[in-house]
Amino acid sequence: MTPSWTRPIRTTRAALLGLITLAFIACEAPERAPLAPDEVPRAAIDFPDDWRFPADALPVTARNGMVSTTDALASEVGVQILRDGGTAMDAAIAVSFALAVVNPSAGNIGGGGFMVVRTADGETTALDYREKAPLAATRDMYLDDEGELTDRSVLGHLAAGVPGTVMGMWEAHQRYGSLPWEALVEPAIDLADGFEVAERFARSIRGSRTALELFDTTRETFLPGGEVPELGSTFRQPELAATLRRIRDTGPDGFYRGETADLIVAEMERGNGIITHEDLERYTAEWRDPITFTYRGYTVSSMPPSSSGGATMALMAHMVEGWDLAELGWHSPEMIHVLAESWRRAYSDRNQVLADTDFVEVPLDRFVSAEYAAERGADISMERATPSSEVGPGLEVGEGTQTTHYSIVDRYGNAVAVTTTINSSFGSKVTVEGAGFLLNNEMDDFAAKPGFPNQFGLVQGEQNAIEPGKRMLSAMSPTIVTNPADELFFVSGTPGGSTIITTVFQTIVNVVDFGMSVSQAVHAPRIHHQHLPDQLYYENQGLHPSVVEALEALGHTVQQRGGTSGDVQAIMVLPDGTLAAQSDPRLGGTALGY
Ligand code: DON
Q1: Could you tell me which residues come within 8 angstroms of residue 546 by beta carbon, excluding any fewer than 6 positions away?
Q2: CB of 504 within 8 A of CB of 494?
Q3: I need a surface site. Which of 176, 203, 448, 567 has the fewest CB within 10 A?
Q4: Is the CB of 401 under 6 A from ligand 1?
């Protein structure tokens, strides 16, 4: 018997939950042990000699539930909720609040995000809790008197959109939660009361130290005594703990009204920001239909607008399907060329056409159709790279960075993929005085000046211009894949700004086309192209020099990136039901199962 968490076990009936869970367990067939990590099948693939992550790494395996996040403390919170009888959704809500405490560079209550859900009975849905432009926002608010872009969309109070995370978690709980709300916020409060500083946390503060010194409250919160918190010391966030208690006790009213709202508005007034009580009270999160498309018989469900992730991935996947990548060979020049040419075209359309569909008309059905992809990809030549200057938009319309992703699967087969952000590392760098949390700088994801690049180099158009109440276009792509038998197969997602879509797509290609294990798929070096700038990027030491030469001979401008790209958290369901997970070693996250 496989219960679905669409089954309404509501908060008021929480006392029954223990019994119900026991009943589920009693009805289940005797448990089989999960595959040992070294029994997990993997592909015979070699990575370049100097590549930093091994091709024979072993995943974490478990039978009952799996949580993969960028931080060990957050993963522990999630897996404990699963052990306590919670579902993947309960764990997702608890992890979101925990990340807001232990991973402040990206985890947040001052930002927003997206969630893709697949219940055990096969229902898929998506939750959009992206920030919105404040009601006083104007199209040219980030331009100076000469019409030039300023840094105000990135730094300081004016950069913040109206936060969506608390409303998003509340909506998720209203629809799918089974444990009481209070029990899901409580672990974050415990962490805010104090957690032991690990290298991962210290490193993120150290890396952004100069920026964190720009605003007094931020400096006082994250550099206590003016110093990066010491390894092994206890890091306490009493103001954040108090904010979380208000959220625990009164739900969204603990954030969008009352004391927290007063503190946000006071912070805005201090720093010439524009978020008002009305903005906060009017904020809504929306349930949406995911973008669902097939790729070589697998079904991919990912985020619809206001994210560009699902639609752009559908377009690139349909174009790529015209080639047998496995035959071309993993990371052969030909395979990379096919990816780059499809990505260049898909991003060109993304940048011009996609935007918040609550505000502008988007030809979404055509965008994600195989027919359009066939037309769009028809001029891809295997002989030469098409310069991006020759790739205009194909569709007509009516006219140091940080994010974080986590993936969760529970013992019933429910899956949740969440990508959430305050945009840049530590967002706008503004901490709300008295409330202890950072505000996002998500407004920079709009086309602050259409036709000019944003911080990710994305050159976006009029469709994504600033309007009051509108959500800025995102690339975040929480994604769930089912196999040709319509069984849960793969959960994936990553941070990485404009590279998010290509990174998630590569994990899918790695497992579907090349039969990689989840560890190989995550460890593999990554490449990226986003139309403009006309450059094919690869991770440091991630391509063999002979492959770079061959790509250059085809006409690609190939560029090695300084650091790494992305922080994928992926879970694969193996044919015997074993859950195999890999947390990306690039940022040092942790997958935990039980
Ligand atoms: O929504 C987006 O597409 C961006 N705000 C994501 C930013 C991001 O991933 C930065 N992290 N690496």
Answers
A1: none
A2: yes
A3: 203
A4: yes
Tell me the chain's radius of gyration from C-alpha atoms: 23
pLDDT at position 401 is 61
| Amino acid at site 546 | S
Q: Ligand 1: which atom is nearest the Cα of residue 496?
A: 12
Q: How far apart are CA 213 and CA 210, in angstroms?
A: 5
Q: Does the N-terminal peptide bond of residue 389 adopt cis geometry, omega within 30 degrees of 0? A: no
Q: Order of strands, edge to edge, in the sheet holding 527-528?
A: 527-528, 536-538, 558-560
| E strands present in 166-278 | 195-196, 234-235
From CA 263, how far away is CA 257, in angstroms rounded?
10
Is 403 among the residues known to form the active site? yes
* Nearest atom within ligand 1 for CA of residue 445: 5
* Tokens standing for residue 292: 């669902």
Is-contact 117 416, C-beta < 8 A? yes
Q: Are 104 and 226 in contact (CB under 8 A)?
A: no
Nearest by Cα to 536 from 521, 554, 524, 520:
554
Ligand 1 centroid to Cα of residue 367, in Å, is 22
- State in Å: Cα 499 to ligand 1 middle: 9
What is the torsion angle, in degrees rounded to the nearest 10, for the CA atoms of residue 187, residue 101, residue 435 and residue 179? Answer: -30
93 alpha carbon – ligand 1 mean position (Å):
20
Query: Hey, what amino acid is at 49?
Result: D
In the chain, the amino acid numbered 96 is: S
Helix (H, G, I), strand (E, B) or coil at 76: helix
Closest-CA residue, ligand 1 atom 2, reads 474
Q: Pairing between strand 558-560 and 195-196?
A: unpaired
Residue pLDDT, tens place only, 194-211: 999 999 999 999 999 999
Kindly state if the Cβ of 535 falls inside 6 Å of ligand 1.
Answer: no
Q: Ligand 1 within 6 A of 403 CB?
A: yes
If one residue of 129, 401, 470 were mutated to test the ligand 1 pocket, choosing by the most ligand atoms within 8 A of its CB, it would be: 401
Q: What is the mean pLDDT of the chain?
A: 94
Residue 130 Cα to ligand 1 midpoint, Å, equals 12
pTM here? Answer: 0.94
Other C-beta atoms lying within 10 Å of the C-beta of residue 157: 22
Q: Ligand 1 center to residue 496 CA distance, Å?
A: 6
What local confidence, expressed as pLDDT, does residue 14 receive?
A: 37
What local confidence, expressed as pLDDT, does residue 353 receive? 96
Residue-wise pLDDT for 364-398, tens only, equals 999 999 999 999 999 999 999 999 999 987 887 64
Is there an atom of ligand 1 within 6 Å of 21 CB? no
Q: Answer whether the bond into residue 533 is a cis peptide, omega within 30°.
A: yes
Q: Which residues of 14-29 are buried (b: 16+ CB within 10 A; e: fewer)?
A: beebeeebeebeeeee
> With a 6 A CB cut-off, is 425 part of the ligand 1 pocket?
no
- Which amino acid would we find at residue 250? T
Distance 420 CA to ligand 1 centre (A): 8
Q: Which atom of ligand 1 is least distant from the CA of 475?
A: 3
For the stretch 394-452, pLDDT in tens is: 887 643 668 999 999 999 999 999 999 999 999 999 999 999 999 999 999 999 999 99
Tens digit of pLDDT for each residue in 142-193? 999 999 999 999 999 999 999 999 999 999 999 999 999 999 999 999 999 9
The whole-number pLDDT of residue 10 equals 36
